[in-house]
Amino acid sequence: MNLSAGGWFVILLAFVGANLPFANQRLFGVLPIGRPIKSIWLRLLELIAAYFAVGILGRVIESRLGNAFPQDWAFYAVTASLFLTFAFPTFGYQYLRRRR
Length: 100
Prior knowledge:
By secondary structure, the chain is mostly helical. The protein has helices spanning 3-23, 40-65, 73-86, 88-96. Helix 1 (3-23) packs antiparallel against helix 2 (40-65) and helix 1 packs parallel to helix 4. The longest helix is centred in the middle third of the chain and has 26 residues, at 40-65.
């Protein structure tokens, strides 16, 4: 995998990971839960877990391609903001659309 393909793969994975908690009623998209609708707190917990999972996978891909660069707090602030921005389409569908 070259640098460009690895970067796009991580971005695509981040988009899917950010939308997964709001797109379905299962825990991490796989495990059924006892309630018919997930609470917002469970969805936020899934979102945080997906952020760290994508971050770890991105770090592994970066280290396989060459040197893994050290990151400062600004990197994590920007990636967390980008992750929340990626989550907006399904968040809006789940919570902001009009129900009949």
